[in-house]
Amino acid sequence: MIFIFIFAIYLFVTAVISKPEGRYAAASALIDNKLYFIGGQFQNGTISSELFYLDLSASFNVNTIASHRWSDPSPAPIASAWATATVGGDNKSRIFLIGGIMNPPTNDTVAYSFNTNIGNWSNITTSGGLNQKRKGSSLSYDPDSGYIYIFGGQSVSNSSKWFHEMIIFDSINFSWSNVTSSTAPSKRSGHTATLLKSGIIVFIGGWELNENSSIPRLTNMSQIWTYNTNSANWSFNNAKFTNDTIIGSRIYHSAVLASDGKIIIYGGSNGINNSKVLPDLAVLNVSSTQFQWSIPNIKSSNNTARSLVGHTAVIIDDYMILLFGNVTGRQPNVNDMIYLLNTKSYDWAASYQSNAPNNSTVLSLPAILCIIVGSIVLVFIIGFSIIWRYQKCSIKRTLLVGNNSQKVKTRSVLHDSDDDNSTRSEEQHHYFDLPSRNSSESQESHVTTFYDYQRQVFQQRQPIHYMMPIDGASYHQDQGNEGHVRVISYAQHDIEPQYVEYDTTSNHS
């Protein structure tokens, strides 16, 4: 039992203070201030099936993130990388994992659902919708309708096959529909999709593949395509650059919608040896008819994020949070750090102050260790106490009776009042014959152990084995009621008095 408790503490420590291993190409979804991560690829190329989340309802410091709460609810049924994920469902409590590279590759399931309320995974039927796994597609979720919009990507099993139809998944009724349009942009992969409050999805960057070409090219960052979810129409917007600023083309970057309605992109690579792109961070103003790019003036600090590709970015409480990914210019060189950008001041921050209504306090690492050590000590004390009491009770159950004459002299104590504490003693001498050492009679007799508590008697019959005379031991016997005697035995080795009630109506001679 103690081992099980210690093992449970070990699991608690691992879940609470162990920062997950760095990775890139992980899918992510934000639900109720919990940022979930699914899968991803490790430094050695292994694809993960892990599911875990970072609790953003509590404030934290990026330098002590290891002592923050990371939780591992339930691993995914498959390993995945370069997949997409989003929140959905009738009560927005489900995570939908769609496409990507999945292991084992023989698995035909394209989409999965994870219920965060009960912690279980289930397969999603994709007939009439997504018919094969895709890498590099984008995903947008409309919380008002429950629709998930999937666009583009390339086939995992056939890298030369690219897509440009819009697939819509109803996350409430679990139904699929395809929207094809002659005005849709060219096939593309590795881009981002950001849903505005107006219901318009903005697509930025990535690779594009024209109909008359088999070689993809980087999408010009001034060429912005949008999709109106209300009218199902595509539009093109030729974004301009502020002060002749150039925003480098990129793939596998991140894009988030800030509280002021602007889109902030970060990182990515140019697709050649995982090379870095410039600038790392840029802002797209989509409030005017013609979109406009700008590069904010960011103060450099010790908390400045590295150039990343295949990372995760979310916006919460005016902070853009960057996690995981691969450091550009080096392959592979996975990132295990967290970076915070204050989107109001455009400063890299060291700590995150949560505005969640139920802001919980995260214990420091020393406090957690003190609790663990104290728990272990307490368990050992309780265990020792249980063992000691058990051994003591075992000693008390041993009845030492008999002497050379095989008779015991007794004295009776009679109760004279309803008050259990009031008694009168009356000396009476009785002799009780015991089986002799050489007697052929069995050395075992049935006795009745009795406890008197508030005038209630609990009786339990159990066999007692006589132990032959011990030198120096004296024996006394109390008469409890008619036909019974109660033996009090004192042994020479400091054994406490033993109280056993004998049925003297049995024949012991």
From TrEMBL:
<keyword id="KW-1133">Transmembrane helix</keyword>
<dbReference type="InterPro" id="IPR056737">
    <property type="entry name" value="Beta-prop_ATRN-MKLN-like"/>
</dbReference>
<feature type="transmembrane region" description="Helical">
    <location>
        <begin position="363"/>
        <end position="388"/>
    </location>
</feature>
<protein>
    <submittedName>
        <fullName>Galactose oxidase</fullName>
    </submittedName>
</protein>
<feature type="compositionally biased region" description="Basic and acidic residues">
    <location>
        <begin position="413"/>
        <end position="432"/>
    </location>
</feature>
<keyword id="KW-0880">Kelch repeat</keyword>
<feature type="domain" description="Attractin/MKLN-like beta-propeller">
    <location>
        <begin position="17"/>
        <end position="278"/>
    </location>
</feature>
<keyword id="KW-0732">Signal</keyword>
<dbReference type="InterPro" id="IPR015915">
    <property type="entry name" value="Kelch-typ_b-propeller"/>
</dbReference>
<dbReference type="Pfam" id="PF24981">
    <property type="entry name" value="Beta-prop_ATRN-LZTR1"/>
</dbReference>
<feature type="signal peptide">
    <location>
        <begin position="1"/>
        <end position="18"/>
    </location>
</feature>
<feature type="region of interest" description="Disordered">
    <location>
        <begin position="410"/>
        <end position="441"/>
    </location>
</feature>
<keyword id="KW-0812">Transmembrane</keyword>
<keyword id="KW-0677">Repeat</keyword>
<keyword id="KW-0472">Membrane</keyword>
